[in-house]
């Protein structure tokens, strides 16, 4: 049985946390932010997995707004070879080993801050200041609510009015799924600008929750090789503004296309719902994804 058009019935912890996002974003928008970059500072934003993808989105937004050079880095690969004024770490658990290690080897004189869900953790203790979004913490292994709430906090600090995104998130929770994911073998997520980070996170949700073959690209990069795999068993989902010619090219190959109609963060909510629906159709438990833990803590 397919899932398109079926009303969403919450049957797992992950779905409850997905459903809590509009209210969590409103709390994040009203939260007091500690240690976030000021205008003109050169900033490196570090994280792992989902947190890294939120860092990508934030970096594109901040630099695009002309507020200062901003780069996102996978924490395990971050080497401060360029002068920065501040390093911002994003970590839900505050225990991710690679983030802690990156903070511990920074040169003296670089200000540090963290956004986390848990206070007094190794990441928080390794930084000068921290914003704790305890209300957005999760029981689930797979991140949904914390990640988007952290980005909501960061967007608000950049001057964004989050009310339209929150309204879109409520729409994403009530509308029918845009596709029946059981009809596809491959899922591709495309974005532009800060939507690239959202696309990366969308693909990760399908891998984590549903063990699905998924990938993500800056939208116009899709023509440069990956489009060779497109066929009638491929779903291509634009999480931000689509390129009309690219959409035509994809459809001409027989692939199906979902076009974003919401704020990219809210579009991600719709992706999360679809990934969980596919997990259930495959007999998987999205609360207990295979081979994953809440945090990667190395010995």
The tally of beta strands, per DSSP, is 9
The percentage of residues in β strands lies in 15-25%
Count structural domains: 2
One letter per element, helices H and strands E, the order comes to: HHEHEEHEHEHHEHEEHEH
Shape: globular
Q: Structural class, from helix and strand content? A: alpha/beta
Our count of helices gives 10
Helix content: 25-40%
* Distance between the ends: 44 Å
Average pLDDT reading: 95
Q: What's the architecture of the largest domain, going by CATH? A: 3-Layer(aba) Sandwich
**CATH homologous superfamily annotation of the largest domain:** Glucose-6-phosphate isomerase like protein, domain 1
Strand order in the largest sheet: 2-1-3-4-5
Tell me the Rg in angstroms.
Answer: 19 Å
How many strands, which pairing sense, and closed or not: the largest β-sheet? 5 strands, parallel
Word description of this protein:
The chain has 299 residues and is an alpha/beta fold. The protein has two domains: 32-132, Rossmann fold (3-Layer(aba) Sandwich); 163-281, Glucose-6-phosphate isomerase like protein, domain 1 (Rossmann fold, 3-Layer(aba) Sandwich), CATH 3.40.50. It is 37% helix and 15% strand. The protein is built from ten helices and nine strands. It has helices at residues 13-19, 21-30, 50-64, 97-104, 122-125, 145-157, 163-174, 195-210, 244-252, 264-281, and strands at residues 43-47, 70-74, 86-91, 111-116, 129-132, 186-191, 213-218, 234-238, 256-258. The strands form two sheets. Strands 2-1-3-4-5 form a five-stranded parallel beta sheet, with helices on both faces. Helix 9 links the parallel strand 8 (234-238) and strand 9. Helix 8 runs parallel beside helix 10. The longest helix has 18 residues, at 264-281. The mean pLDDT is 95.
């Amino acid at each position: 049985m397919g899932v398109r058009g079926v009303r969403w019935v919450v049957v797992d912890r992950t779905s409850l946390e997905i459903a809590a996002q509009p209210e969590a974003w409103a709390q994040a928008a009203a939260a007091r932010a500690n240690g976030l970059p000021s205008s003109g500072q050169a900033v490196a934003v570090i994280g792992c997995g989902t947190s890294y993808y939120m860092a990508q989105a934030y970096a594109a937004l901040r630099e695009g707004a002309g507020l200062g050079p901003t780069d996102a880095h996978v924490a395990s690969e971050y080497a401060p070879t360029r002068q920065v004024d501040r390093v911002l770490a994003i970590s839900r658990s505050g225990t991710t080993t690679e983030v802690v290690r990156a903070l511990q080897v920074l040169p003296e004189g670089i200000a540090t801050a963290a956004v986390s869900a848990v206070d007094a953790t190794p990441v928080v203790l390794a930084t000068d200041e921290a914003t704790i979004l305890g209300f957005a913490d999760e029981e689930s292994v797979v991140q949904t609510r914390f990640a988007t709430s952290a980005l909501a906090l960061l967007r608000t600090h950049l001057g964004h009015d989050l009310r339209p995104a929150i309204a879109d998130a409520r729409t994403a929770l009530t509308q029918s799924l845009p596709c029946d994911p059981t009809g596809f073998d491959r899922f591709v997520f495309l974005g532009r600008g800060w939507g690239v980070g959202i696309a990366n996170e969308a693909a990760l949700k399908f891998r984590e929750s549903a063990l699905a073959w998924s990938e993500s690209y800056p939208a116009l990069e899709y023509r440069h090789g990956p489009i060779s795999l497109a066929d009638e068993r491929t779903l291509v989902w634009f999480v931000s503004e689509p390129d009309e010619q690219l959409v035509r090219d994809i459809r001409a190959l027989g692939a199906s296309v979902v076009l974003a109609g919401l704020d990219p963060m809210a579009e991600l909510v719709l992706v999360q719902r679809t990934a969980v629906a596919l997990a259930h159709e495959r007999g998987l438990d999205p609360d207990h994804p295979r081979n994953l833990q809440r945090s990667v803590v190395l010995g």
